[in-house]
Structure formats: structure tokens, C-alpha cells
């Protein structure tokens, strides 16, 4: 089968022919029908310093946002059968460590598998997916739209941490996950949603999806602009990973506010006057790693089953997997994900 593989350290990847994976006793073999290009995939392709420092064992197949059809089921799997449509949870927990036994499987510390990193991912015709990391879909689920469930879950988890019901929230960075966060925030009961970005087209799209106020941070100081609309900002979801943005977000937050890191911070982060700006104001500063298994997935799937969300809004463009370079080239110019079809 064809797969996009990282075969050596440094920029680039190759489409190579590799065997279809074998099915373990607790695994599924899934025929990948659609798989989305994530910013983190691009960072692996570019081999950024943060990626290089992870010391991933080469070679491996990239990709982690996908949906497909089960074609083979391991003998110990009870809840899936061939023909089922599934999406994938990126994390593969060990199920036995302290974190896994205390409702934190998504941050398993026992050499957790991560699709497209230390476990072969979804930029391929077939993927071996442990059943514990498979999300069952309806029998008529759209494969292209369902490939977006993984980033949608990340947005949902960020809002779970932010406790945004009845709150004012700023979403800084309106790429695909940021746009999803804006829509979900309103759906989950945020009173005001402030979308902050550099690109007018993304800000306009954020307003269509539910944001109340759009702020172009190239032209306006978002701390000042938010203060014009409210005297308290309860939560910030940062998707930029920028030290400058994070420090400004701290200034924008009210005392006792919540700062949720989603964007990847590429270098050491300096927070100025930490005691006075964070500690004495009792800010809650936290990160997240994907979705909470399964406290994110269950309510999120309920929302989708009830028709509360239309994932077509986040399909930027579809293309054959062989055109993956185009997905990279247009990443910053489209609203939504570029979807690869194996």
C-alpha cells in the first residue's frame, strides 16, 4: 500500500510502498477513506526543532486525523465488526498505568502510542488502530466530514477546561481548531466569544460560525478592544503558542481567569512578572493534549448525533493523497482542513 512516510531526519517525506499492517488481537485494520492535514503534521514534515527534540524512531507513517471503514477485527475485540465506520483517537493508552487507572488515559505516561508519531499513522491506505482508540460512527457517516472529529474534539476539550458556560471567552488564533472553538463556545453557552487573528478572512468566517466580536491583532490591541466590550474576560483559549500573545492574554484575563494552551510553544516560554500577574491574581494556566478519553468523546458525539454541528463548514478542500504537497501549500490560505483521499 502507499503511505506518506518520514524516512529520515530533516525536512520532507516520501510516498513509499509498504505492506498492509497485520491485525493484533485487540486491534482493527481500518481502510482509510479520508485523512486531514494538521499543522502538527506540517511541523513534522518541516522537522522543526520541537519535533527534532522528540527523537521519534524513524521511519514512520504520518497523519492522525482520519476516518475509515473496518476491514478486519482482532479476536479479542468485541464491539466492532467489519464494515463499521470509525474515526480515530490519536492516543493509544496502555490502560494499566496510574494515569490510565485514574481517568487520564489521554496523558498515559507508560510510553503512550501517538498515531503519526511513534505509531504509524493515517496517511496511508490502511491503518492498524487499537480498538480502544476507535470511535464508532453511524452507518451513513460522511467520511470526509468525520475525518475532522479529532480536531473538533481538541476544541471541545479546551472548552471543557475553560468552563465557558455563562462566561466571556477569547479564542486567539482562528485556524481550523480556533474556528471550531468559536462555534462550540456559543453552542456550549458562552456569553461573548472574541475571535482574535491576523487574517481578515478567518475573522469574517469566525463571525459566521458564532463569534460575537472579531479583532484583527495587526490593527488593534486585543486587550484594549476586549475591555471595550466587557469588564471581565473569564477564559482565553490560545492556539498560537506565541510568547507575546500569551503575555498579552494574561493581561486581558480577569482575576481568577483561565488560560488554556492549545497552540504548541516552540521554545522556552517567559512570563513577565509571574508572581504579580499570575500567582497573586490566581489565574489558572493549563495545557491540554488532544481529547480527554472519553469525557470529551461521549458528549461531543451526542452533539453531532443531535445535528447541532455541521462539519462541512470545516472542509477546506479535498485532494488525492499523492497531492499532499498542495495540502501544505494551501494550509494557511483556506478556512478548514485540506483533506487527503488515499
How does the SSE layout of this entry go?
Elements: E1 2-6, E2 14-17, E3 27-36, H1 39-46, H2 49-52, E4 60-61, E5 65-73, E6 85-88, E7 91-92, H3 98-101, E8 113-114, E9 126-130, E10 134-136, H4 143-146, H5 149-162, E11 168-172, H6 176-187, E12 192-197, H7 200-209, E13 213-216, H8 222-229, E14 235-238, H9 243-252, E15 258-261, H10 274-279, E16 284-287, H11 297-305, E17 315-320, H12 324-329, E18 337-341
Parallel strand pairs: 11-12, 11-14, 12-13, 14-15, 15-16, 17-18
Antiparallel strand pairs: 1-2, 1-4, 3-5, 3-9, 3-18, 5-6, 6-10, 7-8
What does this structure look like?
The chain has 342 residues and is α/β, with parallel strands linked by helices. The protein has two domains: 2-147 and 310-341, Medium-chain alcohol dehydrogenases, catalytic domain (Quinone Oxidoreductase, Chain A, domain 1, Alpha-Beta Complex); 155-287, 3-Layer(aba) Sandwich (Rossmann fold). Helices cover 28% and strands 25% of the residues. The chain contains twelve helices and 18 strands. Strands 3, 5, 6, 9, 10, 17 and 18 form a seven-stranded mixed beta sheet that branches. It has a six-stranded parallel beta sheet with strand order 13-12-11-14-15-16, sandwiched between helices. The protein is globular. The model has no long low-confidence stretch (mean pLDDT 96).
